[in-house]
Amino acid sequence: MSDNDFGAYPSHPGEVLKDEIEYRKISQRKLAENIVMSHTALNEILNGRRSLTTTTAFLFEAALGVPAALLLRIQLRYDMQMAKSDKKLLDRLDSIRKKQLFSDLRPYRITSVMFRHCALIYNRKGIVRE
To answer: How far, in Å, CA of 53 to CA of 59, rounded?
Structure first.
């Protein structure tokens, strides 16, 4: 897989929301009033100039029925793609990797502590116990 894991260009969740409200013929002002958000803040989200937060994702879910988890995954992918194109960050990461402070670590290796933590979070049936 290439460095561009998420497609030709990253999609901001605001694009999805903007398409949705246009399709439903809901005005930005009406939506802003409904979710008790300033029109300016809403417009910035819809135009990709402001990130979606967990709180705002839940507000959109309540108003439009678009799942908050979906919007947050889109935001995460957008943020990761933007970070991958940030030259300053890439240089910093390269510098850190060159130091090799922990030579035994590999990118794909998950420690037993991390695995146990993830298992506790994702196992909703309670099979994994402390």
So the answer is: 10
Residue 123, amino acid: N
User: Angle at Cα 83 formed by Cα 81 and Cα 89, nearest 5°?
Assistant: 150
At 61, the amino acid letter reads E
What's the rounded Cα separation, in Å, for the pair 30 and 99? Answer: 53
Question: How is residue 28 written in tokens?
Answer: 């930005």
* Cβ–Cβ < 8 Å for 42, 28: yes
Q: Which of 2, 61, 5 is nearest to 34 (CA)?
A: 61
For 42, the enclosing helix (H) or strand (E) is: helix 39-46
**What pLDDT tens digit does each residue of the chain (130 aa) get?**
344 455 567 799 999 999 999 999 999 999 999 999 999 999 999 999 999 999 999 999 999 999 999 999 999 999 999 999 999 999 999 998 888 776 666 665 566 666 666 666 666 555 544 4
Q: CB of 4 within 8 A of CB of 80?
A: no
List C-alpha distances in Å: 30 to 23, 43, 65: 14, 12, 16
